[in-house]
Amino acid sequence: MAGFQPTGGRLATTNSLPRGNAAPKPRRTIVLVGLMGAGKTSVGRRLAKRLELPFVDADEEIVRTTGLNVPEIFERFGEQAFRDAERRAIARLLSEDTKVLATGGGAFLDAVTRQAIADRGLSVWLRAELDVLVERTIGRRHRPLLNTCDPRATLAALMAARYPVYALADLIVDTIDGPIEQTVERVEAALAAHFAGKEGNDEE
Ligand SMILES: Nc1ncnc2c1ncn2[C@@H]1O[C@H](COP(=O)(O)OP(=O)(O)O)[C@@H](O)[C@H]1O
Ligand SMILES: O=C(O)C1=C[C@@H](OP(=O)(O)O)[C@@H](O)[C@H](O)C1
Ligand SMILES: [Mg+2]
């Protein structure tokens, strides 16, 4: 029953507010999930501007609150400590105002986080092929899981393990080689189609 509001003289249920020709402004936090290099951070930042919503990157939030960067947390406290901080940060961010939230690539693998996202957000998997992910992550040192002797093989193994879980997201958007804006537009189109399908439906 949530979301009832009068529109044009009729009672309608909406989970979004109309914004001219752009994708409607969502009432739930849009949560970007997907592998490292999919573009969650860079697409999320631009998407938030387009939707006129605040943007938060979960990794940046963890860095801000701990005063340590991601490799430092992994090195000094281990991956599990990072995952615990990540779960707490995302739970808090979801309990606050509606926003665009870029998660780190491992966050959606956590069942508690997945449930919190299902309860309070709308998840969008930015799906990419291996070549694209390799291209976008090669030579960058800030992702501890990719600091291996064969980052391509590491990414391939992570794809095999994680893609079935990312596939549980509410929406899937393919991100291909090309300008970031193109992916942003694809996400906006997917959101618009999703909200259009929800029109007159009081599930949310
Ligand atoms: N079409 C695109 N979509 C997203 N990112 C792109 C695209 N093309 C190039 N990039 C680059 O790929 C990198 C993606 O990294 P990032 O946004 O940090 O991904 P993630 O947060 O998913 O790990 C950035 O350096 C970005 O500039
Ligand atoms: O996939 C992962 O497990 C990780 C992804 C990273 O974020 P991005 O996906 O934004 O690179 C960051 O959270 C950390 O290095 C672990
Ligand atoms: Mg990121």
Structure description:
Belongs to the shikimate kinase family. This is Shikimate kinase. This protein has a single domain (26-198), classed as 3-Layer(aba) Sandwich (Rossmann fold), CATH 3.40.50.300. Helix content is 49%, strand content 17%. The protein has helices at residues 40-51, 58-66, 70-77, 79-95, 111-120, 130-137, 151-166, 180-198, and strands at 4-7, 10-13, 16-17, 25-26, 29-33, 55-57, 100-102, 121-127, 171-174. A 5-stranded parallel β-sheet has the order 6-7-5-8-9. The longest helix is centred in the C-terminal third of the chain and has 19 residues, at 180-198. The N and C termini lie close together (7 Å). Residues 1-14 and 200-204 have low confidence and may be disordered. The protein binds adenosine-5'-diphosphate, shikimate-3-phosphate and magnesium ion. Shikimate-3-phosphate binds at residues 36, 40-41, 59, 70, 104-106, 143-145.
Could you give the count of β-strands? Answer: 9
Strand content: 15-25%
Low-confidence stretches: 1-14, 200-204
**CATH class category label:** Alpha Beta
Elements, N to C (H/E) = EEEEEHEHHHEHEHHEH
What is the helix content?
Answer: 40-55%
**Ends: how far apart?**
7 Å
GO molecular function: ATP binding; magnesium ion binding; shikimate kinase activity
Region (Disordered): 1-24
InterPro entries: P-loop_NTPase, Shikimate/glucono_kinase, Shikimate_kinase/TSH1, Shikimate_kinase_CS
Binding site for ATP: 37-42, 143
